Structures are given as structure tokens and as C-alpha cells.
Amino acid sequence: MLSLSFSPQKKMSNQTIVTEFLLLGLSQTREVQLFLFVLFLLFYIVILPANILIILSIWGDSHLGSPMYFFLANLAFLDICYCFVTPPKILSHFFSHHKTISYGGCLAQLFFLHLLGGVEINLLMGMAFDRYVAICQPLRYTTVVSRGVCWALVGAAWAGGFIHSFIQVIPIVWLPFCGPNELDSFFCDITQVIKLACTDVYVLELFMFFNSGLVTVMCFILLLISYGALLVRLWARGTSKGTSKAASTCVTHVIIIVIMFGPAIYIYCHPFHSFPLDKVMAVFHTVVFPLLNPIIYTLRNKEIISAMKRLLSRHGLAET
């Protein structure tokens, strides 16, 4: 089926210009679409309340006033933001025969996906800095990682994410799209969109590879090395209660880093061509990962679980 049959194009100066893109989705089978709709809906029914509960528990509990929990609350906020970028369109398309997204809507998805992804990477770097100071400079921790420094790190994370996303989207704005307009995906991403441009995009693909793929790999390696060094230092100290708690926190961060960076590295570090695992990794990156953040942190952190119970008990939703 050719996307031209949907007439998503207009003539301008004797050149056809694409005004919307056709999303082929995850499956064309009705039963599979219904199953995926229920599955995705359950994911987001869990993600939103879980992350909201994490934020309310952290901000409303004096026991969770350390910078680590401040960063965790910001991480939960990012996962909430993810829920408003692609899910509305994904869920609506399961019941639509005309799975399209406007040119402007596609660029908006690109911008906010890479904005949030960039912010999350920068935030994880800030959390690694926080753990370094807490473990290696414990006597200076409260002065080095003050509340002002925490806000500055979060502000820098958003600024860095904005710059990264801006650099990603601006070159695409200048690309000519004259057909075809089919995206073999369920949302807009750079790896799919630039292949539809009516011009040679080899140089742009290299630029995107360095800006997204190579930077992601470098951050991933740097984070693994830093947490690996911290874990070695903690294990050298012995097995005291404080050391075990700090090591458990570092392991939790490593799990989140591997889960987040793995699909991202796969998506942005191979040539911009379709591969069998592309959609699986995309689902994991955009749907599953935001759900795993709150689950991993809450299951591995007794303080957060206790704070949630206290919050719910105050509102008569749980036993004390």
C-alpha cells in the first residue's frame, strides 16, 4: 500500500511536499493490536501513579531530604513527561485505520523525545557525581552537594538536553520531504524520518551518529567506570551497614543505566537501516523503560517504600 493514496502531500512550486507521515505501527493484525493496546494501557496506568507517588513521598517526607532523593524525584518527573510524548498517539492508532501524524507533530515528537532523553542522561551524570562525593568525600558532602548545587545540576541537565534536541531537530527542518512518507514504526524518530528525505543524507547520518550514538556510548562507559570504581572502593572498606547500603544504591543506579542505555545504543549506533529488533528495542526504550525506573528504585529502597506507606496511611489508603 502506497502512502500516496492518503494524499498527505501538497504541490508547491512544482514540487510535492509531505505534510504528514504514515505510521505502519507494530502490527497489522487486529488481535495483536488489541492485545498491545491493553498491554500499553496497563503500562501507563502503572507508570503515572507510581511516579507521582514517588514524587509526593519524597517531597513530603523529611527523612528523604538528601540530594539522592531530590534527583530521584526529578527522574520520576521525567518518566511522567515521557508518558505524554508518544503514548497518546500510540494508543489512539490502535483503533484507527488512518495512522498518520502531521509533519509538525512528528517534529514535536522528535524534539521532546531527545529533550527528555538528553535531560535523563545528564541527570544520571549528576546522580553519579552525588554518589562520588557521598562515598569519597563524606565530610564535605553537605557543603559540596548543597540544595543550590542540586538545582544547578538539574538546570544544567535541562539546558544540555535542550541544546542536544535543538541540534538534532534543526537539520531535519531543512530537509526536503517529497514522498514516500511511510515510517515503519509507531512513533517518529530520527533514524526513520531522515531516510525519507529527498536528498542525500549520508553526512547528516554521520552527524546524528556522533551527536546521539557516540555521545550515548561515551556517557554509558563513563558512568560504568565511575560506578565500578565506587563499588571497588566500597568493597575495600568491608561489610558495614552503611557500606552495604551505599553499595546497594550504586548497584541500583547501574541497573538503571544499563536498562536505559542498552536500547538507546542499539537504536542510534547502528546504520540508519531497518533491522528485525528495531521495533522491539523501540518499545522497550519508550514504553518499558519508564515503567522500570519506579519499580527498581522502590523495590530496592526501603526508605522510599516506608515513605510511601506513611503517605498512603495519612490519607487512609494503607495500614500504618
Automatic annotation (TrEMBL):
It is found in: Cell membrane; Membrane. Residues 50-297 form the G-protein coupled receptors family 1 profile domain. This is Olfactory receptor. PROSITE patterns: G_PROTEIN_RECEP_F1_1, G_PROTEIN_RECEP_F1_2. It comes from the Eukaryota. The chain crosses the membrane at residues 34-56, 68-87, 107-129, 150-177, 209-234, 246-268, 280-299. It is a multi-pass membrane protein. Keywords: Cell membrane, Disulfide bond, G-protein coupled receptor, Membrane, Olfaction, Receptor, Sensory transduction, Transducer, Transmembrane, Transmembrane helix. It comes from Chelydra serpentina (Snapping turtle). InterPro entries: GPCR_Rhodpsn, GPCR_Rhodpsn_7TM, Olfact_rcpt, Olfactory_Receptors. Belongs to the G-protein coupled receptor 1 family.
